[in-house]
Amino acid sequence: MLLHVAGVLTADELAHCRQQLVQAGLADGNISAGHRSAPAAGNLQLPEDSPEARALGQLVLDALARNTTFFAGALPRHIDPPRFHGHRGDGSLGLRVDSAIRYDRSGSASVPIRTDISATLFLNDPHEYEGGALVIEDAFGAHTVKLAAGDMILYPASSQHRVEAVTRGERLVSLFWIQSLVRDEQRRRMLLELDVSIQSLTQAHSPHSDVLRLTGIYHNLLRIWSET
What we know:
Layout: E1 3-5, H1 11-24, E2 27-28, E3 43-45, H2 51-65, H3 68-74, E4 76-79, E5 83-88, E6 93-96, E7 101-104, E8 111-114, E9 117-122, E10 129-131, E11 134-138, E12 141-145, E13 152-156, E14 160-163, E15 166-180, H4 185-203, H5 208-225
Antiparallel strand pairs: 1-13, 2-3, 3-5, 4-15, 5-15, 6-14, 7-8, 9-13, 9-15, 10-15, 11-12, 11-14
Helix pairs in contact: 4-5
């Protein structure tokens, strides 16, 4: 399931992120790409252990906490600390699949995270750079994604994906991974569709008994399928 989450960051938050990225500077992003990922020219990253990365990561986590679409679609159990990347020049990020397990080392102990969902949060607008589209491949073909600043795409971490070469300007994004309460993608999709239906019925002032019945089904399915 691909889910477009609009307006994750406000204009002020985006401006703050970009200012901090400029002031802190971006280093070679291939260092943290993983041994199964091909290095790419122009792949830059804010060092994960820097104070700026931690502060900006918390800003993103706070924004996610107030976003109901994100919570309905992801049903997050654990969110890996956000990373901040810039892509410039003509280097493309070749086709890859994200690691099944990542380790959150932000606390006192290293915590393993199963990567059910991958997230790309766009930090600048498409007109500020050429190329740089995220291409996600699944059974239905290739999906090209290039969203407005502050918007985010969620997609299965098991998907093959790549980033097209940036031929002008610089592409700025935040990347992170999510372990969901519901491991199965199809079940998450069903729960999201049920949640959307409940909200629509509520807004349409449908009979309370109908809304209550669907709400009960939603929570009973979540109770059966969730892993806590």
